[in-house]
């Protein structure tokens, strides 16, 4: 991996660590488990069909108004992350509503297994967030806190 890619991955990791520190102090959303590195990469690959090249991975589990799980797959580029999200959207299209927009981010909302799921790309990351709680206002509140603060 060249220096630019290493610096980009480091910047994303530092941003996630900043989020984790801030969320640990939040009374409404508490980080209860983190899976990182190769274990996270293997778990992420298991839930995907086909080729999915991951540089790094992270799975974060929170307790708030219901359980929230965040799957983050780091890939080689922003373009590849966008491509993977569009491929996922085409595969699960019968399960989602129209895309939703959070700030300037296009996300897909999917219903299944008793949960509400959102997936999108940001920088060189593919992100999948699953909520036990079905309140869309709460979803937006959490997604903004995690990805737009």
Brief account:
The protein has 149 residues and is an alpha+beta fold. The chain has four helices and seven strands, in the order H-E-H-E-E-H-E-E-E-E-H. It is globular.
Strand order of the largest sheet: 1-2-3-7-6-5-4
SSE arrangement, N to C: HEHEEHEEEEH
Return the structural class.
alpha+beta
Rg is 15 Å
- For the report, how would you describe the main beta sheet? 7 strands, antiparallel
Strand content: 25-35%
- What is the share of helical residues? 25-40%
- Give the integer mean of the pLDDT values: 83
Q: Quick one: how many beta strands?
A: 7
Q: Number of helical segments?
A: 4
User: Terminal Cα separation, in Å?
Assistant: 29 Å
Unreliably modeled segments: 22-27
Shape: globular
Explain the overall architecture.
With 149 residues, the chain is of the alpha+beta class. The chain has 4 helices and 7 strands. It has helices at residues 3-24, 37-46, 78-91, 136-147, and strands at residues 30-36, 56-64, 66-74, 100-102, 105-112, 115-122, 125-131. It has a 7-stranded antiparallel beta sheet, with helices on both faces. The longest helix has 22 residues, at 3-24. Mean pLDDT is 83; it is low at 22-27.
Question: What's the layout of helices and strands?
Answer:
Blueprint: H1 3-24, E1 30-36, H2 37-46, E2 56-64, E3 66-74, H3 78-91, E4 100-102, E5 105-112, E6 115-122, E7 125-131, H4 136-147
Antiparallel strand pairs: 1-2, 2-3, 3-7, 4-5, 5-6, 6-7
Name the features.
149 residues, alpha+beta, 7 strands, 39% helix, 34% strand
